[in-house]
Amino acid sequence: MEDKIHSLCEQILAESGDKTIPRIVELRDALHRYVQRLRDKLAHYPVPVERRAAFMQHPINCVVCRQPLTLLTTDACFDDNGKPVHNQCYVKLAA
Ligand SMILES: [Zn+2]
After folding, report:
1. Residue 89, Cβ density class (10 Å: 0-12 exposed, 13-18 middle, ≥19 buried)
2. What are phi and psi of 51, to 5 degrees?
3. Distance of CA 56 from the midpoint of ligand 1 (Å)
4. Which tens digits make up the pLDDT trace of 22-78?
5. How many CB atoms lie within 10 A of CB 26?
6. What distance in angstroms lies between residue 92's CA and the mean position of ligand 1's atoms?
7. What separation in Å is there between the alpha carbon of 46 and the centre of ligand 1?
8. Which of the 8 DSSP states describes residue 78?
9. 71 Cα to the center of ligand 1, angstroms
10. What CA–CA distances, in Å, run from 22 to 4, 17, 18, 74?
11. Staple 89 to which of 64, 73, 80, 95, CB 3.0 to 4.6 Å?
């Protein structure tokens, strides 16, 4: 998403006249700050410690490769039956 925003800003900068450039630079900076704030919020997202501990003791395994899924990464998703799988395992399933 951030790459897409960056790419669009660069395209607009390249196509626009001199008058719009300061506004676009301002927009780009505002978007950058917004994304940074979202990242900061996510880093401190309050997942209760008990739930984290319970997950560590009883990890959820991928139904394809049987390896544990992690909460803190974005490698987890669900198959068509709602079973937990890694993204890369889901791709293999769909292939
Ligand atoms: Zn897997």
Report:
1. buried
2. -65, -40
3. 17
4. 777 787 888 888 888 888 877 776 666 666 666 667 778 899 999 888 765 567 788
5. 10
6. 9
7. 26
8. E
9. 14
10. 20, 10, 8, 36
11. 64
